[in-house]
Amino acid sequence: MIKSQIEKNALKIWQFLDKSQISSVFEIEKRLLMQRQDVLLALGWLAREDKIYFLGDQKVSKIMVIKDIDGD
C-alpha cells in the first residue's frame, strides 16, 4: 500500500471517529468496509500524528479522537 492511500484511509477513519467519538478496530473495519491491515496502518499514521488515543488493554482497545483546544 502506498503512502497516499494510507493517508486517505487515515482521514476516513479520523472523520468516522470524530462523529462516533469512540470505536473499536472491529467497528471501524465493518462500518468503513476496510481490511484490517488497512485500518491498522491508518491508525498507526493517526497515532504518529497524535490524532487518536487508545483506551483499554492490548486485547480489547477502543480508539478516540484527540481534539486540540481550538477544536481541530
What fold name goes in the CATH topology slot?
A: Arc Repressor Mutant, subunit A
Order of helices and strands, N to C? Answer: HEHHEE
Would you tell me the overall average pLDDT?
89
Number of strands: 3
Distance between the termini: 27 Å
Structure class: alpha+beta
The largest pleated sheet is described as:
3 strands, antiparallel
Task: State the low-pLDDT regions, or none.
Answer: none
Report the CATH architecture: Orthogonal Bundle
> Which value, in Å, is the CA radius of gyration?
11 Å
Discrete helix count: 3
Indicate the CATH class.
Mainly Alpha
Shape verdict:
globular
Largest beta sheet: strand ordering: 1-3-2
Proportion in β-strands: 15-25%
- Overall helicity: 40-55%
Overall tally of structural domains: 1
- Output the CATH homologous superfamily: Winged helix-like DNA-binding domain superfamily/Winged helix DNA-binding domain
Features:
WH-like_DNA-bd_sf, 3 strands, DUF2582, alpha+beta, 3-stranded antiparallel β-sheet
Structure characterization notes:
This protein has 72 residues and is α+β, with helices and mostly antiparallel strands. It has one domain: Winged helix-like DNA-binding domain superfamily/Winged helix DNA-binding domain (Arc Repressor Mutant, subunit A, Orthogonal Bundle), CATH 1.10.10.10. 54% of the residues lie in helices and 18% in strands. It is built from three helices and three strands; from the N terminus they run H-E-H-H-E-E. The protein has helices spanning 3-20, 25-32, 36-48; strands spanning 22-24, 52-56, 61-65. Strands 1-3-2 form a three-stranded antiparallel sheet. Strand 2 and strand 3 (61-65) form a beta hairpin. Helix 1 (3-20) crosses helix 3. The longest helix is centred in the N-terminal third of the chain and has 18 residues, at 3-20. The model has no long low-confidence stretch (mean pLDDT 89).
